[in-house]
Amino acid sequence: MATKPATRISNPAEFGRVAVVMGGSSAEREVSLDSGRNVLAALKARGVDAHAIDGIPALLDALRAGHFARVFNILHGQHGGGEDGVLQGALESLKVPYTGSGVLGSALSMDKTRSKLVWQSLGLPTPKFVALPRGSDVHAAAARIGFPLIVKPACEGSSVGVTRVFEASQLDSAVDLAAKYPGDLLMETLIEGDELTVGILGREVLPSIHIVPKGAFYDYNAKYVAEDTQYLCPGLQGDAENELRALALDAFDALGCAGWGRVDVMRDRQGRNWLLEVNTAPGMTSHSLVPKAARVAGIDYEALCWRVLETSFREGA
Ligand SMILES: Nc1ncnc2c1ncn2[C@@H]1O[C@H](COP(=O)(O)OP(=O)(O)O)[C@@H](O)[C@H]1O
Ligand SMILES: [Mg+2]
What we know:
Rossmann fold; binds magnesium ion; alpha+beta; D-amino Acid Aminotransferase, Chain A, domain 1; 11 helices; Dna Ligase, domain 1
């Protein structure tokens, strides 16, 4: 469970043979391969008997053949892509321990609308929203939210299909773009201010990162292409930083998440924080956010991978 203190391992042999599952067939395959190769190299450098496995079918074959004692999951993506609870369920049924969140935390975090319903019910701040099932009246929804607003697919990642909408004339094209992706849509109040993200490692909350994209927002280009996005860590100081970190941990726990992850937040111009989403298998490339925050906390990349692997030791796993 999330509240259980982390098990600390000192001898790499205690992990047994580790499958680092990466790649797969989701849209985020290339990012996952980049993350996975880095994780694999780090674990090997620390003496862990770690091996790369590409995708879920190959992993399940290898597990059934008894080749591995545990799994480091660095697949990104939904629809059985590794991050949405499907893989976690298969691993539970095989009784193979794995890193990160379980079935519920993974599935709930993948669905932004239902994540927000849980936060709202607990009084945790998240932008006002309307769920948009296919074919719903988007103009009526916009009238409830008011402009500016943001339209996004409820279950995608990497900022794909996300559009900021400032007036009614921009609404239809924003909805058309988001509707290119599977699943329902989500419309929410656009928070103008700063973008922050908070990494969680075991029960430790890492320093926040203030993301300063050169363009209008942290879109796909700013995440993966542009070289001019700035990252400030810690993102805030003093009480403001402590409050943000506490909120991130509450948001993570509320969704039943465990092990490690990253909570995305917008901070408005009045200094109020608004929860956007939780990522349960965040990027681990050399440019990724959790490794940056860990470094500021004095945890180098190899130590971070080790700590994430330790999250596979937990009750019920
Ligand atoms: N309500 C919002 N207000 C302001 N910006 C937002 C809002 N929702 C999303 N964004 C912007 O869009 C980006 C992607 O949205 P997010 O909900 O984190 O989805 P994902 O990262 O899974 O694509 C965020 O990093 C942020 O820059
Ligand atoms: Mg995000």
